[in-house]
Design a protein that fits this description.
Radius of gyration of chain B: 18 Å
Number of strands of chain A: 0
CATH superfamily of chain A: ABC transporter involved in vitamin B12 uptake, BtuC
CATH architecture of chain B: 3-Layer(aba) Sandwich
Oligomer: heterodimer
CATH superfamily of chain B: P-loop containing nucleotide triphosphate hydrolases
Distance between the termini of chain B: 32 Å
Distance between the termini of chain A: 58 Å
Structural class of chain A: mainly alpha
Number of helices of chain A: 14
Structural class of chain B: alpha/beta
Largest sheet of chain A: none
Order of helices and strands of chain A: HHHHHHHHHHHHHH
CATH class of chain B: Alpha Beta
Amino acid sequence: MLNLLLEPLGYEFMRNAIAIGVLVGILCPVVGSYLIVQRMALLGDVIAHCVLPGLSISFFLGIDILIGAFGSGILGALLIAWIRSQTRVKVDAAMALTFSTFFALGVTLITVLKNKLDLDSFLFGDILGVTPHDIQRTFVIAALILLVVKLFYKELLFYTFDKTGAQAIGLPINTLYFGFMAAITLTIIASMQAVGVILVISLLVGPALTAYLLTKELHQMMIVGAILGAIASIAGVYLSYYQNLPSGPAIVLVSSSLFLLALLFSPSQGILTRSPQLEPATRFMNRFKFLKRHD
Amino acid sequence: MLEVQQLAVNYRGVRGLDPVSFQVSPGQLVGIIGPNGAGKSTLLKALLGLVPASGGVVHYCTCPLHQQLERVAYIPQRSQIDWDYPITVWNVVMMARTRQLGWFRSPGRAAKEIVKAALARVEMIDLRDRRIGELSGGQQQRVFLARALAQQADLFLFDEPFTGVDKKAEAIMLEVFEELRSQGKILLLSTHEWGQSLNQLDRLLLLNQCLIADGSPQQVMTPENLRQAYGTHLGKPLHQDLETSFFC
Protein backbone atom coordinates (compact mmCIF):
# COMPACT_ATOMS: atom_id res chain seq x y z
CA MET A 1 0.00 0.00 0.00
CA LEU A 2 2.72 2.40 1.07
CA ASN A 3 4.66 1.48 -2.02
CA LEU A 4 1.62 2.34 -4.10
CA LEU A 5 1.75 5.86 -2.71
CA LEU A 6 5.53 6.25 -2.81
CA GLU A 7 6.32 4.80 -6.22
CA PRO A 8 5.02 7.76 -8.31
CA LEU A 9 6.99 10.16 -6.11
CA GLY A 10 10.16 8.75 -7.62
CA TYR A 11 9.48 10.80 -10.71
CA GLU A 12 10.12 14.51 -10.69
CA PHE A 13 7.10 15.30 -12.87
CA MET A 14 4.86 13.54 -10.34
CA ARG A 15 6.35 15.46 -7.42
CA ASN A 16 5.84 18.71 -9.32
CA ALA A 17 2.31 17.74 -10.26
CA ILE A 18 1.40 16.98 -6.66
CA ALA A 19 3.02 20.17 -5.39
CA ILE A 20 1.10 22.42 -7.76
CA GLY A 21 -2.04 20.35 -7.28
CA VAL A 22 -1.96 20.88 -3.52
CA LEU A 23 -1.30 24.63 -3.88
CA VAL A 24 -4.15 25.07 -6.32
CA GLY A 25 -6.37 22.73 -4.33
CA ILE A 26 -5.94 24.97 -1.28
CA LEU A 27 -6.19 28.31 -3.06
CA CYS A 28 -9.20 27.70 -5.32
CA PRO A 29 -11.77 26.82 -2.61
CA VAL A 30 -10.83 29.87 -0.51
CA VAL A 31 -11.48 32.25 -3.40
CA GLY A 32 -14.32 30.06 -4.67
CA SER A 33 -16.14 30.39 -1.32
CA TYR A 34 -16.55 34.10 -1.98
CA LEU A 35 -17.88 33.34 -5.45
CA ILE A 36 -20.45 30.92 -4.06
CA VAL A 37 -21.78 33.09 -1.25
CA GLN A 38 -22.23 35.97 -3.66
CA ARG A 39 -24.03 33.74 -6.17
CA MET A 40 -21.37 34.58 -8.71
CA ALA A 41 -20.00 31.10 -9.33
CA LEU A 42 -20.16 31.46 -13.09
CA LEU A 43 -18.00 34.55 -12.97
CA GLY A 44 -15.06 32.20 -12.37
CA ASP A 45 -15.80 30.46 -15.63
CA VAL A 46 -16.22 33.77 -17.41
CA ILE A 47 -12.88 35.20 -16.30
CA ALA A 48 -11.18 31.91 -17.12
CA HIS A 49 -12.27 32.26 -20.73
CA CYS A 50 -11.46 35.96 -20.77
CA VAL A 51 -7.73 35.42 -20.14
CA LEU A 52 -7.11 33.85 -23.56
CA PRO A 53 -6.60 37.04 -25.65
CA GLY A 54 -4.10 38.35 -23.10
CA LEU A 55 -2.28 35.04 -23.10
CA SER A 56 -1.96 35.13 -26.85
CA ILE A 57 -0.75 38.73 -26.91
CA SER A 58 1.87 38.13 -24.21
CA PHE A 59 3.16 35.12 -26.16
CA PHE A 60 3.43 37.32 -29.23
CA LEU A 61 5.24 40.10 -27.38
CA GLY A 62 7.40 37.67 -25.48
CA ILE A 63 6.41 39.03 -22.05
CA ASP A 64 5.40 37.02 -18.98
CA ILE A 65 1.99 35.43 -19.62
CA LEU A 66 0.94 36.50 -16.12
CA ILE A 67 0.78 40.14 -17.21
CA GLY A 68 -1.27 39.59 -20.35
CA ALA A 69 -3.62 37.05 -18.82
CA PHE A 70 -4.22 39.20 -15.75
CA GLY A 71 -4.95 42.32 -17.80
CA SER A 72 -7.29 40.55 -20.12
CA GLY A 73 -9.17 38.72 -17.32
CA ILE A 74 -9.66 41.94 -15.34
CA LEU A 75 -10.75 43.75 -18.50
CA GLY A 76 -13.44 41.13 -19.07
CA ALA A 77 -14.71 41.44 -15.49
CA LEU A 78 -14.74 45.24 -15.66
CA LEU A 79 -16.53 45.17 -18.99
CA ILE A 80 -19.31 43.08 -17.47
CA ALA A 81 -19.61 45.43 -14.51
CA TRP A 82 -19.68 48.40 -16.89
CA ILE A 83 -22.41 46.92 -19.11
CA ARG A 84 -24.44 46.20 -15.98
CA SER A 85 -24.11 49.70 -14.61
CA GLN A 86 -24.85 51.49 -17.87
CA THR A 87 -27.74 49.50 -19.30
CA ARG A 88 -30.70 47.39 -18.31
CA VAL A 89 -28.87 44.27 -19.54
CA LYS A 90 -28.85 41.58 -16.84
CA VAL A 91 -25.61 40.15 -15.55
CA ASP A 92 -26.02 36.61 -16.93
CA ALA A 93 -26.53 37.90 -20.46
CA ALA A 94 -23.62 40.34 -20.13
CA MET A 95 -21.41 37.48 -18.94
CA ALA A 96 -22.41 35.13 -21.73
CA LEU A 97 -21.70 37.70 -24.40
CA THR A 98 -18.44 38.93 -22.90
CA PHE A 99 -16.78 35.60 -22.29
CA SER A 100 -17.67 34.13 -25.68
CA THR A 101 -16.42 37.28 -27.40
CA PHE A 102 -13.14 37.25 -25.48
CA PHE A 103 -12.69 33.57 -26.15
CA ALA A 104 -13.33 34.03 -29.88
CA LEU A 105 -10.91 36.95 -29.90
CA GLY A 106 -8.30 34.81 -28.17
CA VAL A 107 -8.61 31.92 -30.61
CA THR A 108 -8.48 34.36 -33.54
CA LEU A 109 -5.39 36.07 -32.13
CA ILE A 110 -3.61 32.73 -31.78
CA THR A 111 -4.06 32.18 -35.52
CA VAL A 112 -3.42 35.75 -36.61
CA LEU A 113 -0.31 36.20 -34.46
CA LYS A 114 0.89 32.68 -35.38
CA ASN A 115 1.38 31.83 -31.69
CA LYS A 116 3.08 28.64 -30.61
CA LEU A 117 0.54 28.61 -27.77
CA ASP A 118 -0.72 25.10 -27.14
CA LEU A 119 -4.47 25.62 -27.01
CA ASP A 120 -5.02 22.10 -25.70
CA SER A 121 -2.95 22.54 -22.56
CA PHE A 122 -4.54 25.94 -22.01
CA LEU A 123 -8.02 24.44 -22.19
CA PHE A 124 -7.46 21.21 -20.30
CA GLY A 125 -4.31 21.81 -18.29
CA ASP A 126 -1.02 19.95 -18.36
CA ILE A 127 -0.21 19.17 -14.75
CA LEU A 128 2.43 16.58 -15.69
CA GLY A 129 4.37 19.20 -17.63
CA VAL A 130 4.69 21.62 -14.70
CA THR A 131 8.10 23.24 -14.25
CA PRO A 132 9.68 24.41 -10.98
CA HIS A 133 9.14 27.96 -12.25
CA ASP A 134 5.38 27.30 -12.51
CA ILE A 135 5.32 26.00 -8.96
CA GLN A 136 7.19 29.03 -7.74
CA ARG A 137 4.75 31.39 -9.39
CA THR A 138 1.71 29.49 -8.12
CA PHE A 139 3.20 29.49 -4.63
CA VAL A 140 3.72 33.26 -4.66
CA ILE A 141 0.19 33.92 -5.96
CA ALA A 142 -1.36 31.53 -3.43
CA ALA A 143 0.59 33.00 -0.51
CA LEU A 144 -0.31 36.53 -1.55
CA ILE A 145 -4.03 35.85 -1.92
CA LEU A 146 -4.31 33.85 1.30
CA LEU A 147 -2.57 36.66 3.17
CA VAL A 148 -4.93 39.27 1.71
CA VAL A 149 -7.95 37.15 2.61
CA LYS A 150 -6.66 36.82 6.18
CA LEU A 151 -5.98 40.56 6.50
CA PHE A 152 -9.27 41.74 5.05
CA TYR A 153 -11.44 38.89 6.27
CA LYS A 154 -13.92 40.94 8.32
CA GLU A 155 -14.35 43.58 5.63
CA LEU A 156 -14.84 40.94 2.93
CA LEU A 157 -17.30 39.10 5.16
CA PHE A 158 -19.39 42.23 5.60
CA TYR A 159 -19.15 43.12 1.92
CA THR A 160 -20.19 39.71 0.65
CA PHE A 161 -23.00 39.30 3.20
CA ASP A 162 -24.60 42.73 2.98
CA LYS A 163 -23.27 45.01 0.24
CA THR A 164 -25.58 47.91 0.98
CA GLY A 165 -24.83 47.69 4.68
CA ALA A 166 -21.09 47.61 3.98
CA GLN A 167 -21.41 50.67 1.79
CA ALA A 168 -23.50 52.36 4.47
CA ILE A 169 -20.73 52.09 7.07
CA GLY A 170 -18.32 53.57 4.55
CA LEU A 171 -16.36 50.52 3.42
CA PRO A 172 -14.75 51.14 0.00
CA ILE A 173 -16.89 48.62 -1.82
CA ASN A 174 -15.58 49.40 -5.30
CA THR A 175 -12.02 48.75 -4.16
CA LEU A 176 -13.14 45.54 -2.46
CA TYR A 177 -14.91 44.46 -5.65
CA PHE A 178 -11.86 45.22 -7.77
CA GLY A 179 -9.56 43.42 -5.35
CA PHE A 180 -11.85 40.44 -5.43
CA MET A 181 -11.82 40.37 -9.25
CA ALA A 182 -8.03 40.57 -9.18
CA ALA A 183 -7.90 37.65 -6.74
CA ILE A 184 -10.14 35.49 -8.94
CA THR A 185 -8.12 36.28 -12.04
CA LEU A 186 -4.82 35.49 -10.30
CA THR A 187 -6.26 32.27 -8.91
CA ILE A 188 -7.35 31.20 -12.37
CA ILE A 189 -3.95 31.96 -13.85
CA ALA A 190 -2.30 29.99 -11.05
CA SER A 191 -4.62 27.03 -11.71
CA MET A 192 -4.49 27.07 -15.51
CA GLN A 193 -1.50 24.77 -15.66
CA ALA A 194 -3.10 22.21 -13.37
CA VAL A 195 -6.62 21.80 -14.72
CA GLY A 196 -7.01 24.21 -17.65
CA VAL A 197 -9.48 27.04 -18.06
CA ILE A 198 -12.47 24.86 -18.92
CA LEU A 199 -12.21 22.90 -15.69
CA VAL A 200 -10.87 25.50 -13.28
CA ILE A 201 -14.43 26.49 -12.38
CA SER A 202 -14.89 23.01 -10.95
CA LEU A 203 -11.97 23.44 -8.55
CA LEU A 204 -13.16 26.94 -7.60
CA VAL A 205 -16.68 25.77 -6.85
CA GLY A 206 -16.57 22.01 -6.12
CA PRO A 207 -14.66 21.68 -2.83
CA ALA A 208 -16.08 24.96 -1.47
CA LEU A 209 -19.61 23.82 -2.24
CA THR A 210 -18.94 20.49 -0.55
CA ALA A 211 -17.71 22.40 2.49
CA TYR A 212 -20.80 24.62 2.36
CA LEU A 213 -22.91 21.54 3.05
CA LEU A 214 -20.75 20.59 6.03
CA THR A 215 -20.17 23.88 7.85
CA LYS A 216 -22.06 26.90 9.14
CA GLU A 217 -19.56 29.71 8.81
CA LEU A 218 -17.57 31.18 5.94
CA HIS A 219 -14.12 30.64 7.45
CA GLN A 220 -14.96 27.00 8.20
CA MET A 221 -16.18 26.64 4.64
CA MET A 222 -12.82 27.93 3.40
CA ILE A 223 -10.73 25.67 5.63
CA VAL A 224 -12.72 22.50 4.97
CA GLY A 225 -12.86 23.43 1.26
CA ALA A 226 -9.09 23.83 1.13
CA ILE A 227 -8.54 20.43 2.74
CA LEU A 228 -10.97 18.79 0.31
CA GLY A 229 -9.38 20.62 -2.62
CA ALA A 230 -5.93 19.35 -1.69
CA ILE A 231 -7.29 15.81 -1.28
CA ALA A 232 -8.99 15.98 -4.66
CA SER A 233 -5.80 17.15 -6.34
CA ILE A 234 -3.62 14.46 -4.82
CA ALA A 235 -6.17 11.71 -5.45
CA GLY A 236 -6.68 12.93 -9.01
CA VAL A 237 -2.97 12.88 -9.81
CA TYR A 238 -2.58 9.35 -8.39
CA LEU A 239 -5.65 8.17 -10.31
CA SER A 240 -4.29 9.55 -13.51
CA TYR A 241 -0.93 7.83 -12.85
CA TYR A 242 -2.33 4.39 -12.13
CA GLN A 243 -5.37 4.35 -14.38
CA ASN A 244 -3.79 6.35 -17.19
CA LEU A 245 -6.52 9.00 -17.04
CA PRO A 246 -6.15 12.63 -18.14
CA SER A 247 -5.06 14.35 -14.91
CA GLY A 248 -7.14 17.58 -15.01
CA PRO A 249 -10.42 15.75 -15.49
CA ALA A 250 -9.40 13.15 -12.88
CA ILE A 251 -8.96 15.92 -10.27
CA VAL A 252 -12.31 17.41 -11.18
CA LEU A 253 -14.11 14.08 -11.02
CA VAL A 254 -12.70 13.33 -7.56
CA SER A 255 -13.81 16.78 -6.38
CA SER A 256 -17.31 16.24 -7.77
CA SER A 257 -17.51 12.81 -6.16
CA LEU A 258 -16.72 14.38 -2.80
CA PHE A 259 -19.57 16.82 -3.38
CA LEU A 260 -21.93 13.96 -4.18
CA LEU A 261 -20.97 12.23 -0.93
CA ALA A 262 -21.62 15.40 1.09
CA LEU A 263 -24.91 15.94 -0.72
CA LEU A 264 -26.06 12.50 0.36
CA PHE A 265 -24.48 12.19 3.80
CA SER A 266 -23.86 15.67 5.27
CA PRO A 267 -24.91 15.44 8.95
CA SER A 268 -27.01 18.61 8.79
CA GLN A 269 -27.99 18.94 5.15
CA GLY A 270 -27.45 15.51 3.55
CA ILE A 271 -30.36 14.21 1.54
CA LEU A 272 -30.18 10.80 3.26
CA THR A 273 -29.22 12.05 6.70
CA ARG A 274 -31.14 15.26 7.47
CA SER A 275 -34.39 15.78 9.43
CA PRO A 276 -34.15 12.76 11.71
CA GLN A 277 -37.36 13.79 13.46
CA LEU A 278 -39.42 12.62 10.49
CA GLU A 279 -40.56 9.04 10.05
CA PRO A 280 -38.45 7.17 7.48
CA ALA A 281 -41.53 6.75 5.27
CA THR A 282 -42.28 10.50 5.33
CA ARG A 283 -38.67 11.23 4.61
CA PHE A 284 -38.78 8.84 1.69
CA MET A 285 -41.92 10.47 0.33
CA ASN A 286 -40.48 13.97 0.79
CA ARG A 287 -37.70 13.05 -1.56
CA PHE A 288 -40.28 12.86 -4.33
CA LYS A 289 -42.05 16.08 -3.38
CA PHE A 290 -40.60 17.81 -6.40
CA LEU A 291 -42.75 15.58 -8.61
CA LYS A 292 -45.91 17.08 -7.17
CA ARG A 293 -47.69 19.41 -9.52
CA HIS A 294 -48.01 23.02 -8.49
CA ASP A 295 -51.19 24.28 -10.17
CA MET B 1 -29.96 67.85 13.92
CA LEU B 2 -30.34 66.19 10.52
CA GLU B 3 -30.90 68.67 7.72
CA VAL B 4 -31.95 67.60 4.25
CA GLN B 5 -32.12 70.24 1.56
CA GLN B 6 -33.47 69.71 -1.94
CA LEU B 7 -32.29 66.10 -2.05
CA ALA B 8 -33.21 64.57 -5.42
CA VAL B 9 -32.47 61.27 -7.16
CA ASN B 10 -32.53 60.67 -10.85
CA TYR B 11 -31.33 57.19 -11.60
CA ARG B 12 -30.36 56.23 -15.16
CA GLY B 13 -32.81 58.76 -16.49
CA VAL B 14 -35.62 57.40 -14.30
CA ARG B 15 -37.16 59.84 -11.88
CA GLY B 16 -36.59 58.42 -8.41
CA LEU B 17 -37.21 61.28 -6.05
CA ASP B 18 -38.11 64.92 -6.62
CA PRO B 19 -36.28 67.44 -4.45
CA VAL B 20 -37.27 66.95 -0.78
CA SER B 21 -36.31 69.06 2.20
CA PHE B 22 -36.88 68.38 5.87
CA GLN B 23 -35.18 68.55 9.24
CA VAL B 24 -35.14 66.06 12.07
CA SER B 25 -34.21 66.98 15.63
CA PRO B 26 -32.55 64.63 18.12
CA GLY B 27 -34.99 62.33 19.87
CA GLN B 28 -37.41 62.17 16.97
CA LEU B 29 -38.83 58.96 15.53
CA VAL B 30 -39.86 59.65 11.95
CA GLY B 31 -41.79 57.33 9.67
CA ILE B 32 -41.58 57.50 5.90
CA ILE B 33 -44.75 56.17 4.30
CA GLY B 34 -46.13 56.00 0.80
CA PRO B 35 -47.16 53.52 -1.89
CA ASN B 36 -44.81 51.02 -3.54
CA GLY B 37 -42.24 52.73 -5.69
CA ALA B 38 -42.80 56.04 -3.92
CA GLY B 39 -39.07 56.34 -3.24
CA LYS B 40 -39.02 55.48 0.47
CA SER B 41 -35.96 53.21 0.23
CA THR B 42 -34.41 55.54 -2.31
CA LEU B 43 -34.70 58.43 0.14
CA LEU B 44 -33.01 56.44 2.92
CA LYS B 45 -30.23 55.34 0.58
CA ALA B 46 -29.77 58.80 -0.87
CA LEU B 47 -29.34 60.25 2.62
CA LEU B 48 -26.21 58.10 3.00
CA GLY B 49 -25.04 58.48 -0.58
CA LEU B 50 -25.74 54.81 -1.38
CA VAL B 51 -27.50 55.90 -4.54
CA PRO B 52 -26.08 58.92 -6.33
CA ALA B 53 -28.12 62.04 -5.62
CA SER B 54 -28.76 64.30 -8.58
CA GLY B 55 -28.85 67.29 -6.30
CA GLY B 56 -29.20 68.54 -2.75
CA VAL B 57 -27.27 68.26 0.48
CA VAL B 58 -27.59 66.20 3.65
CA HIS B 59 -26.02 67.63 6.78
CA TYR B 60 -25.78 66.12 10.24
CA CYS B 61 -24.54 68.41 13.00
CA THR B 62 -23.53 70.95 10.33
CA CYS B 63 -21.20 68.54 8.49
CA PRO B 64 -22.03 66.45 5.40
CA LEU B 65 -23.50 63.15 6.56
CA HIS B 66 -21.52 60.98 4.13
CA GLN B 67 -18.33 62.11 5.88
CA GLN B 68 -19.51 60.69 9.20
CA LEU B 69 -20.99 57.36 8.23
CA GLU B 70 -19.56 55.80 11.38
CA ARG B 71 -22.33 57.60 13.27
CA VAL B 72 -25.05 55.93 11.21
CA ALA B 73 -26.65 52.51 11.56
CA TYR B 74 -28.49 51.42 8.44
CA ILE B 75 -30.65 48.30 8.32
CA PRO B 76 -31.45 47.16 4.79
CA GLN B 77 -34.67 45.56 3.65
CA ARG B 78 -34.97 41.87 4.46
CA SER B 79 -35.17 41.00 0.79
CA GLN B 80 -31.67 42.36 0.19
CA ILE B 81 -30.04 39.73 2.36
CA ASP B 82 -29.16 36.19 1.30
CA TRP B 83 -30.36 34.24 4.34
CA ASP B 84 -28.52 31.11 3.18
CA TYR B 85 -25.18 32.83 3.76
CA PRO B 86 -22.94 30.71 6.00
CA ILE B 87 -22.75 32.97 9.03
CA THR B 88 -23.87 32.77 12.65
CA VAL B 89 -25.99 35.26 14.59
CA TRP B 90 -22.96 36.30 16.64
CA ASN B 91 -20.88 37.18 13.60
CA VAL B 92 -23.67 39.15 11.95
CA VAL B 93 -23.83 41.39 15.00
CA MET B 94 -20.04 41.55 15.21
CA MET B 95 -20.05 43.16 11.75
CA ALA B 96 -21.29 46.29 13.50
CA ARG B 97 -17.81 46.76 14.94
CA THR B 98 -16.00 46.52 11.58
CA ARG B 99 -15.63 50.24 11.11
CA GLN B 100 -14.76 51.00 14.73
CA LEU B 101 -12.11 48.27 14.87
CA GLY B 102 -10.43 49.53 11.73
CA TRP B 103 -8.42 47.60 9.16
CA PHE B 104 -6.35 44.52 10.09
CA ARG B 105 -7.67 44.27 13.65
CA SER B 106 -9.80 41.52 15.05
CA PRO B 107 -12.39 42.06 17.78
CA GLY B 108 -11.18 42.25 21.36
CA ARG B 109 -12.98 41.96 24.66
CA ALA B 110 -14.66 45.36 24.43
CA ALA B 111 -16.23 44.56 21.06
CA LYS B 112 -17.43 41.21 22.35
CA GLU B 113 -19.09 42.84 25.37
CA ILE B 114 -20.91 45.30 23.12
CA VAL B 115 -22.15 42.52 20.85
CA LYS B 116 -23.24 40.45 23.83
CA ALA B 117 -25.20 43.34 25.29
CA ALA B 118 -26.90 44.08 21.98
CA LEU B 119 -27.93 40.45 21.52
CA ALA B 120 -29.23 40.32 25.09
CA ARG B 121 -31.33 43.45 24.49
CA VAL B 122 -33.18 41.85 21.59
CA GLU B 123 -33.44 38.52 23.49
CA MET B 124 -31.35 36.60 21.00
CA ILE B 125 -28.31 35.75 23.13
CA ASP B 126 -29.29 32.09 23.45
CA LEU B 127 -29.34 31.65 19.69
CA ARG B 128 -25.99 33.30 19.05
CA ASP B 129 -24.37 30.21 17.57
CA ARG B 130 -27.22 29.49 15.17
CA ARG B 131 -26.79 29.93 11.47
CA ILE B 132 -28.76 33.00 10.42
CA GLY B 133 -30.83 30.99 7.93
CA GLU B 134 -32.21 28.76 10.70
CA LEU B 135 -34.09 31.64 12.34
CA SER B 136 -37.62 32.91 11.75
CA GLY B 137 -38.18 36.21 9.96
CA GLY B 138 -38.83 38.03 13.22
CA GLN B 139 -35.69 36.60 14.83
CA GLN B 140 -33.62 37.60 11.82
CA GLN B 141 -34.90 41.15 12.07
CA ARG B 142 -34.04 41.19 15.79
CA VAL B 143 -30.49 40.14 14.90
CA PHE B 144 -30.23 43.07 12.52
CA LEU B 145 -31.64 45.36 15.19
CA ALA B 146 -28.88 44.08 17.49
CA ARG B 147 -26.35 44.85 14.77
CA ALA B 148 -27.64 48.42 14.63
CA LEU B 149 -27.43 48.73 18.43
CA ALA B 150 -23.88 47.37 18.48
CA GLN B 151 -22.84 50.10 16.09
CA GLN B 152 -23.56 52.59 18.88
CA ALA B 153 -24.70 55.07 16.27
CA ASP B 154 -26.46 58.42 16.65
CA LEU B 155 -28.59 58.13 13.57
CA PHE B 156 -30.64 55.02 12.76
CA LEU B 157 -32.15 54.29 9.37
CA PHE B 158 -34.43 51.27 9.03
CA ASP B 159 -35.75 50.17 5.66
CA GLU B 160 -39.11 48.39 6.13
CA PRO B 161 -38.29 47.00 9.59
CA PHE B 162 -41.82 45.65 10.20
CA THR B 163 -42.13 43.63 7.00
CA GLY B 164 -42.40 39.90 7.55
CA VAL B 165 -41.91 39.94 11.31
CA ASP B 166 -44.01 38.49 14.13
CA LYS B 167 -45.67 40.38 16.98
CA LYS B 168 -42.86 39.67 19.41
CA ALA B 169 -40.19 41.11 17.13
CA GLU B 170 -42.39 44.14 16.46
CA ALA B 171 -42.87 44.72 20.17
CA ILE B 172 -39.14 44.44 20.88
CA MET B 173 -38.36 46.79 18.01
CA LEU B 174 -40.81 49.40 19.25
CA GLU B 175 -39.38 49.17 22.77
CA VAL B 176 -35.86 49.64 21.46
CA PHE B 177 -36.95 52.57 19.27
CA GLU B 178 -38.45 54.15 22.34
CA GLU B 179 -35.22 53.72 24.30
CA LEU B 180 -33.13 55.16 21.48
CA ARG B 181 -35.50 58.09 21.19
CA SER B 182 -35.18 58.84 24.87
CA GLN B 183 -31.39 58.81 24.46
CA GLY B 184 -31.73 61.61 21.92
CA LYS B 185 -30.98 59.52 18.85
CA ILE B 186 -32.56 60.22 15.48
CA LEU B 187 -34.56 57.39 13.94
CA LEU B 188 -35.94 57.22 10.43
CA LEU B 189 -37.90 54.23 9.23
CA SER B 190 -39.73 53.48 6.05
CA THR B 191 -42.87 51.41 6.42
CA HIS B 192 -46.07 50.39 4.77
CA GLU B 193 -47.47 49.00 7.99
CA TRP B 194 -50.64 50.85 8.94
CA GLY B 195 -51.30 49.35 12.34
CA GLN B 196 -50.83 50.57 15.87
CA SER B 197 -47.12 51.12 15.23
CA LEU B 198 -47.93 54.39 13.44
CA ASN B 199 -49.13 55.75 16.78
CA GLN B 200 -45.62 55.47 18.17
CA LEU B 201 -44.13 57.76 15.57
CA ASP B 202 -43.55 61.42 16.34
CA ARG B 203 -43.80 62.39 12.77
CA LEU B 204 -44.64 61.10 9.32
CA LEU B 205 -43.28 61.97 5.91
CA LEU B 206 -45.82 61.01 3.25
CA LEU B 207 -43.98 60.36 0.04
CA ASN B 208 -44.88 59.65 -3.53
CA GLN B 209 -41.91 60.69 -5.63
CA CYS B 210 -42.19 64.06 -3.92
CA LEU B 211 -42.91 64.97 -0.30
CA ILE B 212 -46.70 65.26 -0.05
CA ALA B 213 -47.03 65.96 3.65
CA ASP B 214 -44.83 66.29 6.72
CA GLY B 215 -46.14 66.47 10.27
CA SER B 216 -47.68 64.50 13.11
CA PRO B 217 -49.54 61.32 12.07
CA GLN B 218 -52.91 63.09 12.60
CA GLN B 219 -51.87 66.02 10.44
CA VAL B 220 -50.52 63.85 7.67
CA MET B 221 -53.14 61.14 7.36
CA THR B 222 -55.95 63.30 6.00
CA PRO B 223 -58.23 62.13 3.16
CA GLU B 224 -56.83 64.83 0.90
CA ASN B 225 -53.18 63.82 1.48
CA LEU B 226 -53.91 60.12 1.10
CA ARG B 227 -55.78 60.78 -2.13
CA GLN B 228 -52.73 62.63 -3.43
CA ALA B 229 -50.37 59.83 -2.44
CA TYR B 230 -52.42 56.78 -3.29
CA GLY B 231 -54.85 58.08 -5.96
CA THR B 232 -58.58 58.73 -5.79
CA HIS B 233 -59.66 55.10 -5.69
CA LEU B 234 -57.36 53.96 -2.94
CA GLY B 235 -57.07 57.10 -0.86
CA LYS B 236 -60.61 57.10 0.49
CA PRO B 237 -60.89 53.47 1.63
CA LEU B 238 -57.41 53.72 3.15
CA HIS B 239 -58.52 56.65 5.23
CA GLN B 240 -61.66 54.84 6.40
CA ASP B 241 -59.44 51.93 7.30
CA LEU B 242 -57.30 54.26 9.33
CA GLU B 243 -60.21 55.76 11.20
CA THR B 244 -61.13 52.37 12.54
CA SER B 245 -57.64 51.14 13.40
CA PHE B 246 -55.46 54.12 13.98
CA PHE B 247 -57.35 57.18 15.18
CA CYS B 248 -59.35 55.18 17.68
